[in-house]
Each structure stands twice: as structure tokens, then as C-alpha cells.
Design a protein that fits this description.
- The complex is a heterotrimer of chains A (about 50), B (about 90) and C (about 600).
- Helices cover about 50% and strands about 0% of the residues of chain A.
- Chain A has helices spanning about 5-15, 25-35.
- The longest helix of chain A is centred in the middle third of the chain and has 13 residues, at about 25-35.
- Chain A starts with 5 loop residues before the first helix and ends in a 17-residue tail after the last helix.
- Chain B is built from 1 helix and 1 strand; from the N terminus they run αβ.
- Chain B has one helix spanning about 15-60; one strand spanning about 70-75.
- Chain C is an alpha/beta fold and about 600 residues long.
- Chain C has 3 domains: about 1-135 and about 335-350, Nucleotidyltransferase, domain 5 (2-Layer Sandwich); about 175-325, Nucleotidyltransferase, domain 5 (2-Layer Sandwich), CATH 3.30.420.40; about 375-590, DHBP synthase (Alpha-Beta Complex).
- In chain C, the strands form 5 sheets. In chain C, strands 13-22-21-14-15-20-16-19 form an 8-stranded mixed β-sheet, with helices on both faces. A 5-stranded mixed β-sheet of chain C has the order 3-2-1-4-5. In chain C, strands 8-7-6-11-12 form a 5-stranded mixed β-sheet, with helices on both faces.
- Chain C starts with a strand and ends with a helix.
- Classes of the chains: A mainly alpha (about 50), B mainly alpha (about 90), C alpha/beta (about 600).
- Chains in contact: A-B, A-C, B-C.
- Chains B and C meet through helix 1 and strand 1 of B and helix 2, helix 3, helix 4, strand 5 and strand 7 of C.
- Strand 1 of chain B pairs antiparallel with strand 8 (about 165-170) of chain C.
């Protein structure tokens, strides 16, 4: 069974994909995740799915 | 008719009240939440994405030799079943 | 072993339930929520699948998701990083849903479904490939998937043998045939991810000659297409990597002006641009298929991905490549990936053998959605005090329906299980007389409220198809799913005005008695009256709404439009005999 937590997934993802330059973005986003969007954000219908 | 096949969540009276309070709070706090999210994501963008873009530009030099074919090899699929349980 | 496959979060959310490799049920979420291309988590579709399978969620052995969310997230973040700071506004819009839902798929399954077992994640294009290969009638097949974009892949080639399926080559984002087509769709004033088929319909009006169509040369400058079908786009013509618009200013200038606004008239320039992108798409797909045949030497090919819904291009596959047999997933867009991902887990990961001869293992028909018994329909009609007529005899029902169509009536046809995929194929269809010269206008103005340039499709019994159409011999299986366009034979074009497109082509659906006996017999009964065993078959919906699912939706659709009567299981309901509903289809008709 693989890791089941989001943090575990992200750590595994960084390790396997070796995209370390994304680390600053991911760390800041995780902090934002804790601070900002604890409540539901309305589902945005993606107009251009290549960006969403 | 068919839409009714999705079971309604079982809600006791306490849970029901809490649910309504939660719903009310969400409506009241919505404008504040939009503003605060905008600020937080602005910080995230300029701090996180900004830093990442510096690292990215340092680490990735562009390669501009046009090849004969643009097809790229797909790495072989993993054989062990557990690796398919990963969302990456 | 019960496996639930799920696709969601971008467009066309869907669920599929398979049991021991057999397909039990499959449906798109939009049919239940009534929101076209609904991307939301498919709670209703899952509930339907479980109900159809007589299961509760605890009896599901494995759940399969059609993408690797973290790899898609990597691609999105990479776009933002590469285009910093131009991608700021899109970042603001896109990130919240990633943090709340898209990165937490397992948690979502637990919360929304109460599911606590294993979740398998497949790459997007592998799910497409599996959705094309495993339900096909081939033990071995070459596989091509082409769409907008998944995680990184935009097109892939591979090979399926028995239970195993592998992708070998791919094209990666931002270079994408699907996104090129969508960009031109946006430039022509149609909605991206929804109206690409309008561009395909419009292309028939344009100049299909690459030498004389000036926009062909202009669009060829945008793409570097190699003889082996691989390609790269010149990204200076596109903004979709970092902004909420697809064509760049450079592309607009290149094509001679700003994008068409939806309310603007369609001119010959727009028609020629549509024709140019259609030709280039066909060239690219045919080149990919030729390369795939060169490398695999396999006589069979299967296709999936949104571009595989391009029926005009599909009609040329067998005549322009060395493949002898073709099969296409009827729900070739992302919805169909829910089926592919479940089947891949069953066959490739758990190594369960395929049973091609077994009827529900190979997808012979698309009737996988909800059905309503005559008793349920009657209960609805009585409950709503709707005037109706019961026809317990099948023959009398068919005779009456054929007579109505022959007399020029537009008939709503609601029978059996709803179709899987974007096409109405004789379960939730609007039917009419293809020989009536006014029928195209009647359908467009009274019922469909759609652009005049879009053609209507004919349904014809499979053995009659070669008489009316210049189709491949034998008639390829994807024509059963309305996925191949062929020329109408010249001598029949004037006699079939409602279904012959401006370029003389028709997007036929072939009907087999073994997969839809009632519809087959209706076509034959109508043929007995009219001399032409063929029907106009268009989707049972108002423009802008999904195809109807329930008797109530079918009734409301009839009452709000110019549909004259509704044939629903054993019942015929005439609009004229019932009170006009207050529901006004004109007010809801949209793109």
C-alpha cells in the first residue's frame, strides 16, 4: 500500500519526479492551503482546461 | 426520479443546527474570504512561483536543435501493482 | 471483482462499473445534474452505477481514477513558473480548486462515497488507450490517443495485446492537435471544449482544397508536422499556456483580424478557417496512424481522446491508411476514460483474461445508462395527469410511430437504457423523416434552436448503409456510434435533403438488430411506408442542455419545443393533447 496522506504523496512526488525547483511554490501553497481555503471554494467551470 | 437515487445524508437535530450555522457563517464571511484568499494567493504567487521561476531558469537551459521527429519515448509502465496507488 | 472507474474535475465527469471485466453500467454526471459537460465529482453517476449493479460502496473491490493528479499539478505549476508573472490571474482562479479538491482525490472518495479501499491512478492517456482497447473486439490492436492535454501527454501511440497495453511514443504539452483545434474554435466564436463539432460542421462550407484555401497555408505556418505524424506548434501563436484566451494576438493578426464574436455572422472567411484546421487535423491524425501502422504492422487500430470524436476525419481512416479494422470508444472524450481506467485495473494490473466473445465485455452497443420500465413511465404520466395512449403491442407502437414520422411529425423517442457518450443513438433521440425537404429547417427552428450550418444525422440499418452511403466495406463498427462521416451516394443526395450535408456527406449511424431491435424494426417499418428505411436522428435535448435522461425531462423537452409527440416505452404522448407547459425552451437555449 502506498502512502495515503497528501503530504506523503507530495514528498514522494518530489522525490520521484525530481522537480525540486517546484519546492518553493509547493511549500507556500501548502501554507496557503492551511490558511486560506479551509472552506469550500465554489467550483469554477474551467474555460480553458489546459490551465486548470 | 432518478436523481433521488443519491442518498440524503442522515442528519440529527444537533448536526442539522451546526450545519445551518456553518452555512450562515459561510454566507456572511464570503466577501472577507474572497479578499483574504486573493491576498494570500498573491503572496503565494510572487513568493512561491517567483522563487521557483528563478530556480527553474537557472537549472533548465533551453535546447533548440530541431529533431527529425517530435515523438518522445514513454517510460515503461511500472510492474508492481502498488506503484499504481500513487497519484503521481 | 467489482471495479468502479471515475473521471472528473475538468469536463465530462463520468463513472463506470465493471464486474469481473463485464461492463455493468456507465453514465456521465451531466445527465443527472443537467449541467452540460459537468466536471464535478460524479456522485449521481456513481449512485446510478451502484444501483444498476445492485451494490453498495462496501462491495466495490477497487476504485480507479483516470489521471495522476500530482503530475497534472506539476504541469500546471510548471506553466506558471515558465510564464511568471504573466500567469498571475489564472493562478488566482485555478489554485483554490486544486487545494480543496483536485489534490485530495482519495479524501474525496472517502467523503463523498464512503469508500475506504484501494484507489488506483492511471495516466490520462493510458486511461484513454484502455477505454479504446479493452472494450474493442480485437485481441491485438495498435492504439492511438489524441486530445487536448492530460498530465503532459497530448497524443500517444501504443499497442495492446491480450490483457497487456503499453504506450510507446507520445507528444507532450504545449504541442497539441486538440488544443490547436480548440484555439481555432475559440477564434471562430464558439465555446472551447464544447463546440469543436460546430467547427467540424462548418468546415464543409469552406474550401477543402489546400492549394486554394489561403488559411490552410497560414495555419500550416503555425505547426511543424513531420512525415511520421509528430508535430510541434509555434507557441508564439497561442496564449493558452498562461492566459484565459487561446489564440495570441499574433495568430489573430495572422488570420486577418480579431476573433469572431458569438453574435457575429459567420462569413466565408470563417468557413475557410474551419476547413483549414479540419484539413490539418486530418493530415496530422492520418500521418500518426500511418506511422503507427509502420511500427506495429497490426491490421487493427483503436482510437480514443477528444480528437477521435472528429467523425469527418474518422471516415478517412480505412481508405487512407493500411489498417483494415478500426474501433473507437463511443465516449472518446474524458468521460470514456472512466471505463478505460477500470478495465485497465481489471486486466493489466490484476491480470484477468479478456473475454472478447462475451457480450458485455466487448462494447457492442452504447446502452449503459438508466432505463425506466413501462410501469415507471405510466406512474409518472398518471401522476402528472398527462394524456397518453398505451400500445401494449410492439407492432402497433412501431406502426403508429412510423406513421407519425411519415406524416411529417417530429417524434421524441425514449426507449430502454440511455446512451453512453455524446451521441443519441436510438434510446434518447429525436426522430424525423429524412426525405422531407423542410425537415432540416423545422428541426432547427422549432426544436434544436441551433446554427443553420450544422447537419442532421441519419440512422440506417447496417445492411442498407452501402446502398445510400459510399462507406467502407464491410461497414466499420464505429459507424454504430455515429463516429464516421461518409459521402452520401450522389443519386440519393437530393432524395435525402434533411441528412445530406452541404458537401454531400452524412454522419450516419448504422443500427444492428442484435443491439437495438426496437429501433431497427422502427427504421424498417418506416422504410415500408416511405420506401427509404432511414430516419433523421438528432439528440433529444434543447441546445445548451444535456441529452434527456428521465421521463420527466423527456416530457418537459417535448412541451417546451416543437416536438410533436413522444414515444416513451409503451406510450405515445401528443403535445397537442396536453396543456402547454410554462417551461419555455427558447429562454434556456444557449450555446
Amino acid at each position: 500500500m502506498a502512502r495515503q496522506s497528501l503530504l506523503g504523496d507530495i514528498w514522494g512526488f518530489l522525490r520521484v519526479r525530481k522537480v525540486w525547483w517546484l519546492l518553493p511554490t509547493i511549500i507556500v501553497l501548502l501554507l496557503m492551503g492551511v490558511l486560506a481555503v479551509a472552506s469550500q471554494v465554489p467550483y469554477l467551470a474551467p474555460f480553458i482546461y489546459a490551465l486548470f | 426520479m432518478l436523481n433521488s437515487v443519491v442518498p440524503e445524508p442522515v442528519e440529527g437535530p444537533v448536526r442539522n443546527i451546526l450545519h445551518r450555522i456553518d452555512k450562515g457563517l459561510r454566507i456572511v464571511l464570503k466577501p472577507f474570504q474572497i479578499v483574504s484568499n486573493f491576498i494570500l494567493f498573491t503572496v503565494a504567487y510572487f513568493l512561491g512561483v517567483g522563487l521557483s521561476s528563478i530556480f527553474y531558469r537557472l537549472g533548465n537551459k533551453s535546447k533548440t536543435i530541431p529533431p527529425d521527429s517530435y515523438w518522445l519515448d514513454v517510460p515503461p509502465a511500472p510492474k508492481d501493482r502498488d506503484s499504481w496507488l500513487r497519484p503521481f | 471483482m467489482n471495479i468502479l472507474g471515475i473521471s472528473c474535475h475538468y469536463h465530462d465527469a463520468a463513472a463506470t462499473l465493471i464486474r469481473d471485466g463485464g461492463i455493468v453500467a456507465a453514465a456521465e454526471e451531466e445527465r443527472f445534474t443537467r449541467r452540460k459537460h459537468d466536471p464535478a465529482f460524479p456522485e449521481n453517476a456513481v449512485a446510478f452505477c451502484l444501483k444498476q449493479g445492485g451494490l453498495d460502496i462496501g462491495e466495490v473491490d477497487a476504485l480507479a481514477f483516470y489521471e495522476k493528479p500530482l503530475i497534472k499539478f506539476e504541469r500546471l505549476l510548471t506553466q506558471h513558473v515558465q510564464h511568471f508573472p504573466r500567469s498571475f490571474m489564472v493562478f488566482q482562479r485555478a489554485m483554490p480548486s486544486w487545494l480543496t479538491e483536485k489534490l485530495r482525490v482519495r479524501k474525496l472518495f472517502k467523503k463523498k462515497l464512503g469508500y475506504r479501499g484501494d484507489v488506483f491512478f492511471l495516466e490520462h492517456h493510458l486511461s484513454h488507450a484502455a477505454g479504446a482497447f479493452y472494450p474493442s473486439p480485437f485481441d491485438e490492436a495498435a492504439v492511438l490517443t489524441v486530445d487536448g492535454v492530460g498530465e503532459w501527454t497530448t497524443a500517444a501511440m501504443g499497442m495492446g495485446r491480450g490483457t497487456q497495453l503499453e504506450l510507446h511514443k507520445e507528444i507532450r504539452f504545449p504541442h497539441s492537435i486538440g488544443l490547436l483545434y480548440s484555439t481555432v474554435t475559440a477564434y471562430l466564436g464558439f465555446s472551447v471544449n464544447n463546440s469543436e463539432y460546430k467547427v467540424m460542421g462548418l468546415s464543409a462550407y469552406g474550401d477543402k482544397n489546400p492549394v486554394s484555401n489561403p488559411y490552410y497555408t497560414k495555419l500550416k505556418q503555425v505547426i511543424d508536422l513531420k512525415p511520421d505524424g509528430s508535430f510541434q506548434l509555434d507557441m508564439s501563436y497561442f496564449d493558452y499556456e498562461f492566459a484565459e484566451r487561446m489564440p495570441s494576438k499574433k495568430l489573430c493578426d495572422h488570420l486577418g483580424g480579431s476573433p469572431r464574436k458569438p453574435e457575429d455572422p459567420v462569413t466565408s472567411r470563417h468557413e475557410n478557417i474551419a476547413a483549414a484546421v479540419q484539413i490539418i487535423t486530418e493530415e496530422a491524425v492520418i500521418a500518426m496512424l500511418r506511422q503507427l501502422h509502420r511500427t506495429t504492422q497490426c491490421p487493427n487500430v483503436v482510437l480514443s481522446g477528444g480528437v477521435a470524436l472528429n467523425s469527418v476525419g474518422n471516415g478517412k481512416i480505412l481508405s487512407q491508411t493500411d489498417f483494415q479494422n478500426v474501433w473507437i470508444q463511443p465516449n472518446a472524450g474524458d468521460g470514456g476514460s472512466s471505463m478505460g481506467t477500470a478495465l485497465y485495473v481489471h486486466h493489466a494490473l490484476f491480470n484477468n483474461p479478456r473475454q472478447i466473445a462475451s457480450p458485455n465485455h466487448t462494447l457492442h452497443h452504447p446502452y449503459l445508462g438508466p432505463s425506466f420500465s413501462s410501469d415507471e413511465v405510466e406512474s409518472f404520466l398518471r401522476g402528472q395527469n398527462i394524456v397518453h395512449h398505451r400500445f401494449p403491442s410492439r407492432e402497433k407502437l412501431l406502426d403508429e410511430t412510423a406513421n407519425l414520422i411519415q406524416s411529417g411529425k417530429v417524434v421524441g423517442w425514449f426507449q430502454g437504457r440511455m446512451e453512453w457518450g455524446p451521441r443519441s443513438l436510438g434510446a434518447r433521440s429525436i426522430l424525423a423523416n429524412p426525405c422531407d425537404p423542410n425537415m432540416r429547417d423545422i428541426l432547427n427552428l422549432k426544436v434544436k434552436h441551433r446554427e443553420i450550418f450544422r447537419p442532421f444525422a441519419p440512422s440506417v440499418c447496417v445492411e442498407d448503409a452501402p446502398k445510400y452511403f459510399e462507406c467502407d466495406d464491410p461497414v466499420p463498427l464505429p459507424t454504430d456510434f455515429m463516429l464516421m462521416v461518409y459521402p452520401v451516394r450522389p443519386e440519393w443526395r437530393e432524395k435525402l435533403p434533411a441528412v445530406t450535408h452541404v458537401d454531400g456527406s452524412g454522419r450516419l449511424q448504422t443500427v444492428r438488430r442484435e443491439t437495438n431491435a426496437l429501433y431497427y424494426d422502427l427504421i424498417k417499418t418506416f422504410g415500408g411506408l416511405s420506401g427509404v428505411p432511414m430516419l433523421v436522428n438528432t439528440s433529444f435535448n434543447i441546445r445548451g442542455e444535456p441529452i434527456v435522461c428521465t421521463p420527466e425531462q423527456a416530457y418537459r423537452c417535448m412541451m417546451g419545443t416543437g416536438i410533436d409527440c413522444l414515444v416513451m416505452e409503451d406510450f405515445i404522448i401528443h403535445r397537442g393533447e396536453n396543456m402547454k407547459d410554462t417551461w419555455d425552451s427558447e429562454s434556456v437555449a444557449k450555446d
